[in-house]
Amino acid sequence: MARNIMEYLYHKYPDVRVLYVEDERFSREKLLRILNRRFATIHVANDGVEGFQLYQRYHPDLIIVDIKMTHKSGLEMIKKIRELNDKVQVIVTTAQEENDLNIQSIEHNVNHFILKPIDLNQFLEAIHESIQQIKLEKDFAMMDSLTNSFNRLKFHEILASEMRQAEQFDQFFSIIMMNIDSFKNANDCFGHQAGDKVLVTISTIIQQRIRECDFYARWGDEEFILLIPGTDSQNAAELAESLRCIIEDFPFKNISHLTCSFGIAEYSTKKSKNELIQEAEQALYQSKNKGRNCVTIYNKE
């Protein structure tokens, strides 16, 4: 069902880059007024040639294009773009009589067709659906496919956001870095398939133990990191200790015994992202040096 137009008047998409291609000036200016309310970054082209050049330069997330133009058509532009990227969202505006072009567009994976004159509700609904798909694609790119956890890139993004919020509202949080002890030996002895199952099992244990507001990511091959909002280092250590005990007692298939080491650092005002991560790494190294299978809170002394 199409959403009410008023719902979109204040719905901004600041992180989505748009390429809009239309050769008819009146139509272009009319639709741009609508787009400018919703997107911070819009690249505008008068034909398919300029549109393809802008695509190559800026790599937009969403393309809105008139299918038939005086110079290079929108269809030709879409065909060339699809050779480079089969994921980018494409919304085509088209006249009712352009059925042959519409059929050809389907072959090039056009996501939405909007008939002219444009129905605003239908157009905004197409934008909404395209944005949802863009978000899904971006989220998928931020996930570790094996363990179904965030990847390192996404964790850096989350950590930066959490630090800004902590500074603004005088909040605190902790991070826990953990490493599977002697994982290389297990891989060498039992094979990488068994090693992958260990990674999946440990990830499942962690995800079942943490809260919905906690963030968990794969940091390296056998290394993971957690961000625990509103939690000081002592309480983070209690969580880490509970995870350590569960993993130590867990009967891994074909591998009799595995343990993990943990390092904990607490965020404080003005501490940089690199400093916080280095503190957690140092605490983890201390756990390794103490004989593994233990939890260490960072202490600068």
From TrEMBL:
| UniProt-listed Pfam families | GGDEF, Response_reg
Q: Please give the residue positions where the record annotates the modification 4-aspartylphosphate.
A: 66
UniProt domain Response regulatory: residue ranges: 17-131
**Which keywords fit this entry according to its UniProt record?**
Phosphoprotein
Where's the GGDEF domain?
171-300
Q: What SMART domains is this protein classified in?
A: GGDEF (SM00267), REC (SM00448)
The protein's matches in Gene3D superfamilies, at most eight in alphabetical order, are given as: 3.30.70.270, 3.40.50.2300
Q: PROSITE patterns, from UniProt?
A: GGDEF, RESPONSE_REGULATORY
From the record, give the transmembrane residue ranges.
Answer: none
Protein name from the UniProt record: Regulator of RpoS
